[in-house]
Sequence to fold (419 residues):
Amino acid sequence: MVMPCLASAATYQPSEVKTCKLSPNTKSYNCAVSKDDKDFVNWNGQEQKTYEMLQFVNNPYSGDSTKFIYLAARDNKYYVVLNGKEQKGYDYINANFVQLSPDSKQIAYVAKNGINTWVVILNNKEYAKSDSEIYNLKFSPDSKAIVYQKRKNGKSYIFVNNIEQRKYDLIGTLQYSPDSKQLAYVAKDGGKYFVVWNGKEQIKYTEGDIHKGDLHNGEISRLQFSPDSKELAYIVRKDFSNIVVVNGKEQPNFGSVAQDTLFSPNSKNFAYILQTSRRDYYYAVVNGKKQTQFKCDSSFADNDFWKSSMVYSPNSRQLVFWVLDEQKKYSLIINNKAIGQFDCSSVSDIVYSPNSKNFAFMCRQSDADGNEVSDLYLNAKVISTSILIFDYKFSLDSKQLVYVALKNGQLKREVINIK
Fold:
């Protein structure tokens, strides 16, 4: 049974609602709206202050659901807005580097004043200052450290708690281990790409000519630690293919090209997706063993979504990903088996309930009048249809599937009770 809750009395056109986010506890929602040349947030049905520009940050809610932040601009100033209250205004703030700490107690971001003054703001106080650009700000998982990068005189520098660590020609993706004891990042120096793990440089790969998709040979992506912090994996571009590396060892690619990697929540399984060199099949490799190959439409190989759609259930027992077949229909692959065909123009990420007993996803398609509609699926069965469904989550107790939708012009938080 679907029960509407926290509905907005205001009405909007589909083009006016840019995005919506549910809180981690699913009890609150915020939507970014652009209407009558003004941007504002609709917070649980209530319209907030208007701005000339408004942008949601990457993770707008704190983990405990008590804080919500976004970036806004008016009168040539940028503001971080926390629970509806503006913080100090600056000439520029990059929404990509506005962060709430994992323990939900701190807020940090990078701001710019004047032509060459960059500052790190921590809890409304100036934490660091530089005459060169500061970027890639991040908290450690235990919230005790802040890391950021700086670019100056043709070099990239990395700082942890304001202490300079290393400098290279280029520093890219950075990751902390879940236990916060290890730091790894991608670097480039002297024409070679490599990972720096706890200060030690790993295997170096020579930069090559640009190949397909503006990727250089040697470039590294998908840097990630296992949940138990014991393993580090990434993908490297080598000989115009993609190779998976785990703890410094290259994994078999069976003549195919690696696209995505994933550790299971219990850290006992490591999976990666391979695409055949002819781009007509792709398949998973789990703990070094090839799984069933699935025929795919060649256009799917160019879609960035499928390259990162792999998901493990919270109990680590199910590995799930999408396939677009030759009929241009999506198949859901669960533990090496295709489950159904879905005639959609696009599909969303698969989301599991915390108890791993249910999963949900969204399918978008056009109706008879050519309007795009969203179908929400629970365990591969349609449970709701709306003009737009923005965000969906299972409740923390796994008893409800909650989503935010635009129905009859109104924004609604709706709840599906799971039997």
About this structure: The two ends are 10 Å apart (CA to CA).
